[in-house]
Amino acid sequence: MLRLEGIDVHYGATQVLWSVDMRVAEGEIVAIMGPNGSGKSTVLKAAMGLKAPSGGRVLLDGREMQDASATERPRHGMAIVLERRRLFPRMSVHENIVLGAYARPARETKGSLEWVLGLLPDLREHLDATAGKLSGGQQQMVAIARGLMARPRVLLMDEPFLGLSPAMVKTVSAIMRTINGEGVAILFNEQDAKLSFALSHRGYLLESGRVILSGSGQEMLDHPEVKRVYLGVREEAAR
Amino acid sequence: MATYTKGPVAARRILALMLLAGTAGTAQAQDVSIGVIGPMTGPAANTGTAHREGMELAVKEWNEGAGDYVSDEPPQVELVVEDSNSKPEVAIGAAQRLMTRSDVDMIIGDTLHSHVTLALMEMAPQYGVPILSAEPVSSAIADKVLSDPERYALYYKGNYNSDGYGKAVHGFYSWAFENDVVPEGDKTIAFVVEDTDYGIANAEKIGELFEADGWTVAATETTPTGTTDFYPQLSKLRGLDPDILVSVFTLANSGISFVRQLDEQALEASHMAIFYPTRPEFMEQAPDIADGMFWAALQFSPEITPEHQAFNDRIEAEFGVSANYSHAHAYCTMVVALRAIDAAGGTDADAIASEIGGTDYDCLVGKYAFGEDNTVQSGPDFIPVPVAQVQGDASQIIWPENVATAEPQ
Amino acid sequence: MTEILGRRPALSFLICVGLFLLTLVLPLNDYVLHILTLSLIFAIFASGWNLTLGILGLKTLGHHAFFAIGAYLSAIAAFYGGVSPWLTIWVGAVLAALAGLLIGLPILRIRSMPHVAIVTLAFAEIVRLIFSNLKDITRGELGFWGIPPFDPVSFGETTIRFGLGNAWGSFILVGLFFFAVQGGLLLLLRSRPGLTFAAIRDSEAAAESLGINFGAWKLAAFALSAGIVGLSGAIYAHYVMILTPTSVAGPEMLITLLAIIIVGGAGRFFGPLYGALLLTGSLELLREFGDYRMLLYGALVIGFVFVAPQGIAGLKFDRLRRRRGHGTNESSSSA
Fold first, then answer.
1. Minimal-distance CA residue of chain B relative to C162
2. Contact B197/C142 with Cβ under 8 angstroms?
3. Which of A195, C112, C192, C333 has the fewest CB atoms within 10 Å, counting from its CB?
4. What pTM was computed for the model?
5. Chain A residue numbers touching C203 (CB-CB < 8 A)
6. Which CATH number do you get for residue B12?
7. Which residues in A lie closer than 8 A to residue C210 (C-beta atoms)?
8. Could you give the ipTM of this predicted complex?
9. Which stretches in chain C have pLDDT values below 50?
């Protein structure tokens, strides 16, 4: 349903993505794995329209998205959970979540809220809390809930596990599976190869702004290059 | 739960305080009460303070038996002073406070500002209280009176119109050209004035009178009140090379800066300074920077007028400061009001107003008499507007000839 | 939004309305009514400005320009056009809003807040100079007088008059305007636009990712804010009935209003009302102290900034929250 074709991105004169091709099919969880600075986040921003590509196309269900600005894309069924959560820290959890439905008709808000709280029941008791005062894990859940309020068919998640405790990583992974079970496709990025590919149906390996490998989650985990570079070395330099 | 009304409680408290302020009137032992509204705070507070001192002295002398009474049983008078902060809406508040809280029988105000007076004079018909403004000169006030004399029957303007200075400046130069005091040149005049009703009205009037004589106004530069950097205006004027340069400021600081910078620029024009040389702060520095400068109007000159010196001594004894023109004018304004109330024999507003209108009284700065526009008249027979010159350590009156204390140098 | 509106804003609003109605039956003298009327005019001004300065967090310092635009244009339309002030105030408000749009377009592109502050200040100075130089129309600093008051309104036998000297009528009128504006703002802030403003202030990036076109929203808020301030200026013009460029667009107006917003609580819905009542009221109460009045006033403002850095409205909120912190269990049930 979501396709990136030959995406080039420049920051000023510096090119950071080189003809990136990716696709996310209906109901899939897709991981973008790669080292720091490989351009993972930029792929998501380009897909969402938050960073304009200098070349290539973004297609959603075969429709070109180039002319749709970032503020229009939620209407087409896309949502993004930004890096480091990016909540509205001075507002309540409830207000944060409700704002996620900004792009949807107001009459849907109540139903969407019930749906989201059904998926993330733990949030119910924190609805009145000030968002900025929650723990990192709780904030991530609020951010996911906010993203889901747009009723996306594909949810982009930028570094969803960044800075979370191991227990919280498990919880968030479980939530991502649950969401996926509701028919929401997910495209996320993560530096940890094991975590990325164990959670995803398919994955891409990005290096220096180029896709150098792709395949199913298991294929990626078994690939000698991934094993040698990312599972071997990375494990020692562990996070 | 119990604390959510905190905000409204705070609001209620403020309200309660204001109610208190509004109702806790002070008992009065006096027969008559006069309210004064002037700029006691803000940029013009210096002048406002002088007004207050002048008026307080007048009332003190009156109450102590040293006044110039009309009747045999002059009333005892209470004075209530309120601040206008140089703002119309604040002055309105002050007037309402005077009317409702101090229950005054008459208001003197604004003591300085014309724009404040334009608002304040509305209070006369609204509350049926006589209002006499003190130093404001703007002709707009007199025009307003003439536009509806019935409505403003209770309002009087205690200073001459803004054309008073214009007539004096024009009259002086006509005389000066005739007597070869100043060369006429190619008949161009220029102005640097502060951007107030006072500055602009003076420039317009003087320009008008000179243009009628075939002169050209080369430039009218306006600067905000309080300006101390005049190099842009002066360098422009140097190019235009006018024969006469007129400057009008109400603040001494602006005047001092202007005169200094003018000296540095070495313009050849004959310079006429208006108003700011009446400020003592200016005169302290004048011998160094302004020797030979013409200025208007020397209406208060203790050095050369014994009567003014005596007044100065009384102000000094009472307040420990030297008197200036604002003290004298405020004093006379108050005396005019006191005499009118005395003559009216009561606190009836119409009677007081009618007595003010009939004033014919010689005070420190000249003879007070009101014209058809309820405005004090200026000129040799009424309040003279003498032109002076800085000569050494003092200023001497050089025009009109009948009151001159020295020859021009 | 609790931070902006406080808890139970609708109830607080109704209590304020109740207090207003109460003051109408109290035997208040003209002086007290005049001070309350001025407070409410400044409270409308501050509420409008608070929208951009406090709630959106834009450091715009030129709103006294919109006050002057509203005041002068309404006065000009009424004086020269002979149109009733009941109509011309809306002309003033709409033109101020348009001016807000005009100046908002370039300002909202500036990212650096100090630059926004300087540009808006300069804009206000330009407006002041324009009005003081259009002497043929405004009489400049000579003062624009002859501005008509609001036309009287009759209910059967009784006629209510407005303008200076008609303190009671003016107070009712300004009170109605104040509560209309405040009520409208409350509805706005409690609905989606309010949430959107708060979201933009908290994080533009997050707002954009949710599909919020924050540029358009900020521009709309700026225009609305300018329009409200313009309306307050127009009401002021027909109440005080004289205008000078310095008294409506001078730096003192800026400082007075800034103090009202800061003392009341920048970004708090009820801040402007508290600030306007407290500062305008205390300035009058301090008249008792004669020469020390402005000194004490300055000390009062400084004192408030130290004691209540979030303003009066913020003080209330913080204290309440601290209390909530001690008894979390009971309070969470109130959701």
1. B126
2. yes
3. C333
4. 0.80
5. 86-89
6. 3.40.50.2300
7. 74, 79, 99-100, 102-103, 146, 150
8. 0.81
9. 325-335
